[in-house]
Every structure is written in C-alpha cells, then in structure tokens.
Amino acid sequence: MRRFVITGHRACTTGDFKLDDLAGGAGRLDILVRCANSSLFLSHGIRKDVEVYLVLEGGDDAPKTVIFKGEHARYLNPDERSTASLIRNALMKPVGKDEEVQSTPGVYVTRMSFSDVLRKLSEDGKIIYLKEDGTDCRDYEFPDNPVFVMGDNQDPTPEEEAMIESYGPDRICLGPVSLHANHCIVIVQNEMDRREA
Predict the structure, then answer these.
(1) Which residue of 34, 99, 174, 179 lies most exposed, with the fewest beta carbons within 10 A?
(2) With left for phi above 0 and alpha for psi between -120 and 50, is residue 49 left, alpha or beta?
C-alpha cells in the first residue's frame, strides 16, 4: 500500500465552503484536492493500492482528516470540483473523537490530528519525508508500505517537523527545484511504477 499524508494548514474543516472558492474561502483546499487526484488517478482508472490522508487544520472544528481509499473508491471523478464535493460531503458528517465515518464509498472522515495520522500509519509503514535536502529519489530504494508526508503550500511547522522527525523518517528529494505538492506525488508514483514494472 502507498500512503500519502498532506497537511492543509488553513484548510476548512466544516462543509460550508463554496466549490468555486477552494483557494480562498476553503483555505487552499484546492491544493489538497489536487494531491488527492494526483495520488489516485490513472489514465483510465483508480489506483487500488493508494490511500490519501488529507489533514485539515483550519477553522474552529479542527483538526479533521479526510481519507480516500482507492480500493473502495466510487463516484470519484478526475475534476477538482467533484473531489472537493466529496470532501465537503465528508466534512458535513457528524464524527466523534475516535470514529471513522464513511461519507461515500472509499471516502472517510475522522477527527485524527497530524500526529494521530503519523502514529497510526507508522505502525505498518515507513515514514518518508519529502524534503529538498533529502536523498535523491533516483538513488533511493522504496520500502514496502511507504508513507509519504508533505505540507501544502506551506512547509510543516517546527512542531510538525519535530513530530515527523520523531519517527526517524527517510528524507528524499525529487530534484533540484521546489515543486508543487501534487507534482511531487506524480513523480513519486512514477518512480515506484517504473521499478515495479
């Protein structure tokens, strides 16, 4: 299983945002939507071996995490508006502290924080921190069950970085220039696909 964790520092945690204002009123939710799509979609299908954890940290109801599980995903289309609508539907579901509520097939919402997500996923996966000063991905041997961690348009805060580092992550970089988070995901997927082919 390949897992991607993206933290949205200002991403709205309630479902009251407008689908035509994802970059503004929804707190840069557009970035998380692109990351989900880049993680899950193939040209004519959905990756069944991928899970995406979108950690939303904006607003009074934070934190919440929306999870996409490719193996069970239905009604998922490659346009941003459709994915944002699935996220909004998930955020409108009432969810208790230790619950994981399914809103549509393959889409879930929880009250897990960034640290909760890392703790859960580190139990059976290796944390990999995508960072400009890491090992070049072309010289890196990807482990089974990798958990790729990245920020949105902001780097992880010092506290978040300390949490990541506490798991002894592998640090990898994807090239000599900084890239958008969703582009990083496409490159990682391609590197792994090529090696598994």
Answers:
(1) 99
(2) alpha
